[in-house]
UniProtKB/TrEMBL annotation:
It comes from the Bacteria. It holds the Pfam family MerR_1. GO terms for molecular function: DNA binding; DNA-binding transcription factor activity. Residues 18-88 form the HTH merR-type domain. Keywords: DNA-binding. InterPro entries: DNA-bd_dom_put_sf, MerR-type_HTH_dom, MerR_fam. This is Transcriptional regulator. It comes from Ectothiorhodospira haloalkaliphila.
């Protein structure tokens, strides 16, 4: 059956750059074969693969796996439901990030426009 447990019972994530599948398995309370299966089911979960097809997970992968685990094991979502919830979350984050970039670009363009309005024409230039 499903592996139950609370995320609060999980160990703290160490300050390392990369984690092996065994380390992630322990950090997230999920067996390695389940992690490999989730890679197929959740497109956003893509560990770096190195020599010999060894998987190396980064901190954001570990956090994502803990979110997936919580959705499936604690909140009762199906794989499809968890995938939808996570993709909706990513879409909202992308939209927010895009809006911030647009705001910043607008501010910078307005500053450039002000500079151009202040600059007198150089000799040889036409008005």
């Amino acid at each position: 059956m499903l592996e139950a447990g609370n995320n609060s019972e999980l160990p703290a994530i160490p300050g390392k750059r990369y984690f092996t599948i065994g380390e992630v398995s322990e950090l997230c309370g999920v067996k390695p074969h389940v992690l490999r299966y989730w890679e197929q089911e959740f497109p956003s979960l893509k560990p770096v693969k190195r020599r010999g097809n060894r998987r190396y997970y980064q901190r954001q992968d570990v956090i994502l796996i803990r979110q997936i685990r919580s959705l499936l094991y604690e909140q009762g979502y199906t794989i499809g439901g968890a995938r939808q919830k996570l993709s909706g979350q990513e879409a909202r984050e992308d939209t927010t990030q895009s809006q911030q970039i647009i705001r910043q670009m607008r501010i910078e363009l307005e500053e450039v426009l002000q500079i151009l309005k202040q600059k007198p024409p150089q000799s040889g230039e036409h008005k």
